[in-house]
Amino acid sequence: MIAIILTIAAVILILIYLQNRLAAARNAVATGYSGIDVQLKRRHDLVPALVDSVRGAMAQENRIFDQLLDARRTAMSARNDDIETVQRAEAELSVLLRAFVAYSEDTPEIGTAGNVRELQKQLEETEDQISAARRLYNSNVERYNTLLDAIPSNWVARAMRLDRATPFALAEAEAEAVRTMPRIDLPGSRS
């Protein structure tokens, strides 16, 4: 009789332990996504300042500004949607930001403006922080999804009706940039 009670108690303790691990992993995923969201908001806040700083020097390029601000609005409105919608909107914003920064660097009257350089620096820092937040989030997603797949925690997860989390993937343009070898020009090197 005591053996049966101890066995039942052990099973209950194991189930409680597994449920707590799953809950902690699910919460880590939510916290990781919150970190991405904070950095995306920071980037969204930097875009109008960058556009305003450059707009005077580039009056003939209003189309670029309009596209960038439209992409920002789309990305901001997508923040409460599913992760795939957020990824698409952020990918579009990233592409336009890269094109905008490249254009401003190639335009002398813009590249020499101190406030533009400072905003570009802040934007680069924000992009780095977005990457770090995305890595943390994806790590938490991997750990959580592994718990959903592993026995016996998957039995508890099924009973709790837990769904798999979606990783924050690289946009196609970002993935291509990662695969492409950067061109490095050093003084005195042969071309």
Summarize the structure.
It comes from Nitratireductor basaltis. The chain has 191 residues and is mostly helical.
Structural notes for this entry:
By secondary structure, the protein is mainly α. The chain is built from seven helices and no strands. It has one domain (2-135, 151-173): de novo design (two linked rop proteins) (Up-down Bundle). It has helices at 2-55, 62-78, 83-106, 108-111, 114-149, 153-160, 172-179. It is rod-shaped and about 85 Å long. The termini are far apart. It comes from Nitratireductor basaltis. This is Lema family protein.
The name CATH uses for the topology is: de novo design (two linked rop proteins)
Distinct helical segment count? 7
Radius of gyration: 23 Å
Instruction: Enumerate the spans where pLDDT stays under 50 for 5 or more consecutive residues.
Output: none
Instruction: List the quaternary state of the chains.
Output: single chain
CATH class category: Mainly Alpha
Give the N-terminus to C-terminus distance in angstroms: 83 Å
Our count of domains comes out at 1
Number of strands: 0
Instruction: Look at the structure and give the mean pLDDT.
Output: 78
Strand content: under 5%
Structural class: mainly alpha
